[in-house]
Amino acid sequence: MFSRPVSFMVAGAAGAATLTAASAPSPLYPVYQRLWGFSAFTLTVIFAVYVFALLAALLTVGSLSDRTGRRPVASAALVLLALGMLLFAIAGGTGGLIAARVVQGFAVGAATGTVTAMIMDSAPRPQLGSLVSSAVPALGIAIGAVLAGALVEFAPLPRQLVFWILAAVYLVLAALVWLIPEGSRPERAAHSSIWRSLLPSAGLPPAARPTFFALLPSIGATWALAGLYLSLGSSVIGTVLEVHSHFVVGIVLGVFFAAGIAGTAVSTVLPPELREWFGYGTLILGVLITIAAMLTSALPLYVVGSVVAGLGFGAAFRFAVNALGEAAPAEQRGQVFATMYIASYIAFSVPALAAGLAVQRVGLEPTAVTYGAAEVALVLLAMTAGLIQARRRTAEDNTPRSA
């Protein structure tokens, strides 16, 4: 078995690698569109089926690791993810892409809550666990976008190589996670209880519910923006900003998520009372800058806006993960994080699918600008919810003293 520090590193690597699959196809979408001639709406359908499959996994096997242990669920999910990458590599049309996305989505959904709980279980300190578990999604997505963009532009087999590489990585990680010691959990349930746990369900322990519902607008705001970048981002960069290099498209997409890692790190050195508001403030400012960049077709300004918005994405999501990690009982973290990711991926997919429909009617640039304005409104709602939650906590803290 691995030591605790090595286990933490392997769990973090698995978390990042899992989300690498989410962005790896993004720089290739314009290539697929030209090759197979499908519409912007079909593109968003290809994007959305991934999320619907992911949600199905979260609703069925999302909390399974709380009963069976983290290792078997994480390993099986990584093997399934390798299969999804192989399906991408051999895809010969829209149907093949949809099949690959369905397998990929279910695998990511099975892995996401489990690997997040595994990171928290093996972390030397709870704060470090929340830092890493909130940073690895952005890290993985940034790596996927940049790696795919570079290989499409410069490598042989531009539509296949990235998927062969990722399939090999997932198989290696599927073996390594078996060497991570299991965290604390209740005695394993009987097989009948395990089978019942596979019935579609989502839930939260009572202790985590107030925190979760207060954070729901924040989770929605961060992941809705990520959904825009990964669904229509490459089209915006290529069409509105007139960038024709796949590598540059991958870099620009990766900038947002790389900045998310920096935002996660920056939030840890800020005073606790400022962390939430730093995330929301930079998220709003970054979105406003990117809207201005799209209206003026200014690529440098768009990159600046992506960096600022990415800082907000990382800081806001880290705050949410940390707050939920503190509120969730250790033996139910898999369930809590699975539920968090259900909300995250609904926000990730449904607005992006609506945007794909809107592109057909009003065009790409007006749709992206309107999406940005709606994002600002959602962040303002998150700020309001944060203020209400802060006042509630203050009132609860003062009640014993006044009694």
TrEMBL record:
A Pfam family reported for this protein in Swiss-Prot or TrEMBL: MFS_1
InterPro entries reported for this sequence: MFS, MFS_dom, MFS_trans_sf, MFS_Transporters
Protein name (database record): Putative major facilitator superfamily transporter
PROSITE patterns for the chain: MFS
GO molecular function: transmembrane transporter activity
Residues in Major facilitator superfamily (MFS) profile domain copies: 1-392
SUPFAM superfamilies xrefs: MFS general substrate transporter (SSF103473)
Localization per Swiss-Prot or TrEMBL: Cell membrane
TM regions (residue ranges): 38-61, 73-92, 98-119, 131-155, 161-180, 212-232, 247-270, 277-295, 301-321, 342-362, 368-388
Keywords attached to this entry: Cell membrane, Membrane, Transmembrane, Transmembrane helix, Transport
ATP-binding among keywords: no
Membrane topology (UniProt): Multi-pass membrane protein
Gene Ontology cellular component annotations, sorted alphabetically: plasma membrane
